[in-house]
Amino acid sequence: MSAPSFGLWYDFRNPPQWAQPAGALYRDTLDQIVWAEQLGYGSVWLSEHHFAPDDYASSPLIVAAAVGARTTTMRIATNIVVAALHNPIRLAEDSNALSLLTDGRFDLGVGLGYNEREFEAFGRVRKQRPSLLEDAIAIIRTAWSGSDAGYQGTRLSMPPVRVTPMAEKVPRMPIGAVAPKGIERAARLGDGVITLSNASFDTYLDALVANGKPVEDGDIYASQWVVVAEDPEREWSRIGEKVLYQVNKYIEWGSFEGSGVPDHFEAPDDLLDFGIYQLWDGPKAVDELVGLATRYPQVRDFHFWAQFPGETVESGSARVQYIADAVIPEVTRQLEGVPAAL
Questions:
Q1: In a domain, 150, yes or no
Q2: pLDDT by residue (tens digit) across 163-213?
Q3: How far, in Å, CA of 205 to CA of 214, rounded?
Q4: How far apart are CA 255 and CA 249, in angstroms?
Q5: pLDDT tens for residues 214-269?
């Protein structure tokens, strides 16, 4: 079997208590992505939030264009664009341009969103987000098809116009989801699912069957909430406070609503005890990822946070290098049946 690609995930957070010059953070991160491609990483994933005090990235498509200009083989994807906050016709047009610029390497990952403040600021109603997302997906699909039939949805519509220029390679549109309803939507409407938990894989496969789709055609893009390092406990003692900040901010914004996650974690080790994060060394990572990819051949990509809020790019690069050296080659070798080097 072919091995999944490995990717890096970015949000460009820059919390005030650990503030770095923002321009340098962006430029150094772009250099890191170019270097990671040379190390064997096959994907980069870009997140979106707005009005965040910690400067969470708000323009992932602009960043995607910059990444595309500096790389040659990496797939570039969003994880995720909150489609309800955008004009979907513009999303379709910008995605076409990114596909043309990158020779088809761009994927538009979309999702519901959850931050009440963002919906209010963009003139959207949060409780309408399921229909907003489904209308946005339908409009983007219509635009990418080359049709001028237009679309009339529950919340959003598209006039009878034909979007140009068309991408030579139509982008894929995986859907990010956590709750079963969202995973069902990804099975029904998406080019795969972007998961936040490996426990969601079976839910996705069941949803494919329920929607009359063969499970072998499923695509899973698996975000990994794991710290991988040669000595993961020592690494955790170094960066745990930054990971704690990350998770607590997501909780504050509404990311884990209805999931049973507490409304606040007091200490980094609480994240490990609850199971939101895991610590793996290289051999553990190889065993876990080979096992997942063997059991679920639908997994196309494993991606990891490159660095955590307030962490320097240099600090994150140590883990990027370790995964490239100790994990990617061995996972690939085992899954592709390549004999071990003598």
A1: yes
A2: 999 999 999 999 999 999 999 999 999 999 999 999 999 999 999 999 999
A3: 9
A4: 9
A5: 999 999 999 999 999 999 999 999 999 999 999 999 999 988 876 788 999 999 99
Pair of tokens at residue 95: 């995605």
Whether residue 217 lies inside any domain: the answer is: yes
- The answer to whether residue 314 scores a pLDDT higher than 50 is yes
Domain housing 165: 5-230+276-336
Cα–Cα distance measured from residue 91 to residue 44, given in angstroms and rounded to the nearest whole number: 19
Q: Which two tokens stand for residue 132?
A: 């907003």
CA distance 307 to 319: 9
Residue-averaged pLDDT of the chain: 96
20: left (phi over 0), alpha (psi -120 to 50) or beta: beta
Q: What share of the chain is helix, strand, coil (3-state, %, to 5)?
A: 50, 15, 35
User: Residue 310 maps to which CATH number?
Assistant: 3.20.20.30
The number of folded domains in the chain is: 1
Report yes or no: 335 and 3 within 8 Å, Cβ to Cβ. yes
Structure tokens at 331: 């996972």
- The SS3 of residue 279 is strand
Q: Is residue 214 assigned to a domain?
A: yes
5-10 vs 75-78, strand pairing mode: unpaired
Output the six-digit token pair for 180.
């079963």
- Reply yes or no on whether the pLDDT at 341 is more than 90: no
